Amino acid sequence: MFAARGHFEVTRAIGEAMKNTAQSYVERDKCPLYTAIQVMEGRWKPMILHRLNQGALGLGELRRSMAGVTTKVLRQQLRQLESDDLVVRGTTAEPGIRVRYQVTPHGRTLGPVLECLWTWGVIHLSHKQSLREGLDSRFSSG
């Protein structure tokens, strides 16, 4: 019923699977769409960029403007945005050294992309609401 496989055949099959997986990672890492999504990946990154597009903010100001985010997570996401050259961290010459975050020129290039995503999100939310209302009316009439 089942053919016995030799050790070499199993090892070769595993090696081929690993090779294919490695190739898919290489392909994925070169994909512009995947790269763009990866840069924006994170619960708070779009909101951070939205706030900073309105002007430079300190960590505390940013945290207070975003209900629910912890300081730890906010710092992590700001560091990731910094490493992708979307946000820059600088100090001001005000009394007492203050750290401020602002969007870089490269980060500003995301503006039109975020606006398109916002528009699509509004449409999608409306679509989901229509689906819910349609389901509600089907169950309430029957």
What attributes characterize this protein structure?
single chain, 142 residues, mainly alpha, Arc Repressor Mutant, subunit A, two-stranded antiparallel ribbon, extended
What does this structure look like?
The chain has seven helices and two strands, in the order αααααββαα. It is mainly alpha-helical and 142 residues long. The chain has a domain at 42-136: Arc Repressor Mutant, subunit A, CATH 1.10.10.10. Strands 1-2 form a two-stranded antiparallel ribbon. The chain starts with 6 loop residues before the first helix and ends with a helix. The model has no long low-confidence stretch (mean pLDDT 84).
Major sheet, described briefly? Answer: 2 strands, antiparallel
* General shape: extended
Oligomer: single chain
Read across the widest sheet, the strand sequence of neighbours is: 1-2
Uncertain stretches of 5 or more adjacent residues: none
Order of helices and strands: HHHHHEEHH
Cα gyration radius (Å): 24 Å
- Tell me the name of the CATH class of the domain at 42-136: Mainly Alpha
If you consult CATH, what is the topology of the domain at 42-136? Arc Repressor Mutant, subunit A
Strand segment count: 2
CATH architecture of the domain at 42-136: Orthogonal Bundle
Amount of beta strand: 5-15%
Number of helices: 7
Distance between the termini: 53 Å
Relative helix content: 55-70%
Q: What do the pLDDT scores average to?
A: 84
CATH superfamily of the domain at 42-136: Winged helix-like DNA-binding domain superfamily/Winged helix DNA-binding domain
Which structural class matches the secondary elements?
A: mainly alpha
